[in-house]
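Recap from last week: sequence in, structure out.
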Amino acid sequence: MSPNLVNIIFGMKVRQARTENGLTLSEFASQCDLSPSYVTEIEKGRKYPRADKIMKIAETLGKEYDDLVSIKLGPSLSYLESTLSSTMLQKFPFGEFGLETGDLVNLLTREPERASALLHAILEMIRRYDVKEEDFLRAALRSYQEIHENYFQDLEDAALAFTADFGKAYNFGTERLVTQEALEQILTEVYGYQLDYKTIEEDERLSSFRSVFVPGRPPRLLVNGRLYPRQIKFLLARELGYQYLQLKERSQTSTPDEVKSFRQLLNDFRGAYFGGALMIPRAAILADLEAFFALETWNPQPLMDMLSGYDVTPEMLFYRFSELIPQHFGIPVHFLRYHQVGNEYKLIKHLNMNQLNLPSGLGLHEHYCRRWLSLRLLREMAERQSVGSTDRFPPPDVHISRFLNSEDRYVAFGFARSLVLSPGVNSSVTVGFRLTPDLDRTVHFVTDPAIPHVIINETCERCPLAPEECLVRAAPPLTLDAEQENAARKSALNRVVAQMRA
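Predicted structure tokens:
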């Protein structure tokens, strides 16, 4: 058992016993000849007192010394011990949320037996759904982004400072976007990098990686030469983010083949955010968004112009939208990225700042509603490819959706594209807003009557629409049928019970 966990268990026992004795923190500290601040440190698991102080604490609480220092917990609290010692909890980034493990302990010690049962249930669900540590940490990062509305002023400022430091010497700035040549020169001349565009491309075993970082003197960045120039530019800009922000703990490969810590994920995110802000400067894209939102009717051309003008991929552009729109336009957004392989759809990345009722099929092995724009774009792209189309960036599309049996409506627009490093795999990215009564004051085109309106649901297995009402259903409503059967059974049971009591 780690020393930190020993401290936490001791602090938990002290706090529980103190509250059971009806002592305030100040009263308890006075009777133990300790300062209130030191008692707080003990109860939060930060400090472990000397033996003489423990004896005084035990005497004040009416406890045996050995019971207080024992790391053994009763059977009803055994799951609490196993949870506190789990790697998932130990790696959870409490500090990034303004918390620490001691804060959790304070909550748990109020009702320790109930807390132990709850944590046991949570761990069982994690095991049953095979939630890996990496998934857990990625969910923590996503929550961290969402509570900050995915906007980080320090990273925006860093991108501006970088431009001020290097823009003049390398010919980019407010009037001229950074070029691949400039990024390469700064990496090699300022940070001493060696760039390699052949090794990955020539080794089939490395072909799925976009880049590999090899630390040392000099540091080397291996870039997959099969990528498109706009993708290579982003990798170089992100690499500069690692260096300029002095981010040491990081992934060695892109896409990461191993997640060791939350700090690694956070630094990867910060480097990518910097890279996006450098390639798509805030002032310029905000002006473009204002012009786009001012359109009275839907027109996909401005989005196409932004793609070519900033020389970025749809994901880079839309992810930049997710960073700036909530902060500067006051509109919460959802960002979704799906992949399609054959008839299978997989949610790869998402941010959900407007509390969208995301499909639950990922965890339940159900089929996503095919009417979602993200999936429709993928389906339509697959149909075009089946007749010989090679267009990697078909024009974006839009729709307004309403959840079945709900008044919640959303406007969403997005792109589909084929992936250069994954033959046969298509990807879609969409951004959407909740359709509030005043949204049209900012996004004028949402009132365009030409925008199609569709009814959507979570998954096919939960949808009551008849086959003739939905031509893209992928599975029968098995979950809905089971729920209705269960409801009918309960109704029959209640009826029989009522008759017997009459």
